[in-house]
Amino acid sequence: MSPAHPVNTVNPENTVSPVSPVNPVNPVNAPTFAELYGRPAEGEWAAPGRVNLIGEHTDYNLGFVLPIALPQTVRAQAARRDDGLLRLWSAQGRELVELRLADLAPGAVPGWAGYPAGVVWALRDAGHEVGGADIRLDSDVPSGAGLSSSAALECAVAAAYDGLYGLGRSASELAQLAQRAENAFVGVPCGIMDQMASMCCRPGAALFLDTRDLSARQVPVDLAGAGLALLVLDTRVKHDLGDGAYAALRAGCEKAAGLLGLPALRSLEPAGLADALTRLPEELRPLVRHVVIENARVEAAVAHLDAGDLPALGPVLTAGHASLRDDFRVSCPETDLAVEAAVAAGAHGARMTGGGFGGSVIALVDTGRADHVAAEVTAAFRTAGYAEPRTLTATPAEGARRIR
Ligand code: GLA
Description:
Number of helices: 11
Bound molecules: alpha-D-galactopyranose
Number of domains: 2
Oligomer: single chain
Low-confidence stretches: 1-27
CATH topology of the largest domain: Ribosomal Protein S5, domain 2
Strand content: 15-25%
Largest sheet: 6 strands, mixed
Number of strands: 13
């Protein structure tokens, strides 16, 4: 979901003196925390976006995922308030949103502010005695690109609140609160992968996460040491999980698990797949096939990483894409073309990453061929009449932390 469209929800009844949300003299320069709120911040926290190496649409089926954190982050500068108000400003939205804690309720805060407000609501709903805050947000995580800008926003605010109010919650507890904010307050039925990635990833490693019990292992990913780079090709087709298609897929998986008498599709092993498929209506079979084999692909990818054989990841990625395209059906012509063009240009493998319906493709390439692969994908997009993809290089970075 893209937190790109701010909605000013200033409550006309509040008694706080108005502040100027943007510097009217130079609108290009974003105002500082002190300029916005008339005092210094107590601290600053950062939380990253992510790319998932493999394990897509497995998290809400209680399966495996293998994300890395991106160097791109959402930063939250924050200071406590004791008057029951939450004030939010974002350098991307350029608008001050002021909310009364007492008014926070699921569905009550539209637009980007719903994500941070939802985290505060989730904390209070879970019994944490937290008050208000002034928060200034800034982000270099591309939004709507399938790189988890929403989770980064939630996790930056969760980490900030944990620090401001001395809650001492673990990274995984904060991730679960952030997911609750998105599920119950914003209304997007996402799984736990993005929030766990943003909170728990470590530099130089992928997070091998079992979403059934949230047990996790940091698996070293030394791309540079292997002479490899991970390209991220943002197709610029805006992906949005809030439009119902994601919820429908999730419901289909849950229905299939119910029909098979399983708590979740995770419980179905590849050996039992063929038999299980015969017991399902035709339209659910491809979903189940994807989830079961995708879980096995995560385990295969981890084995390759553990063996230090990084190029062997490539075919696993490409097979994962074919499954998302043909069975789970969440790719689109742009992501399919990016994968095809990257592989044709010499990538070891490529796949869409994240929820799908647009967003980004990752491609595992030899360092020396990265520019060539990016140029070939760009050329293919031009020929097809698509907007030029935006290219980043992903290095496994650090999860949420205090930076000041
Ligand atoms: C989105 C959701 C995640 C996960 C992926 C698909 O990113 O937020 O929970 O379901 O899609 O793997």
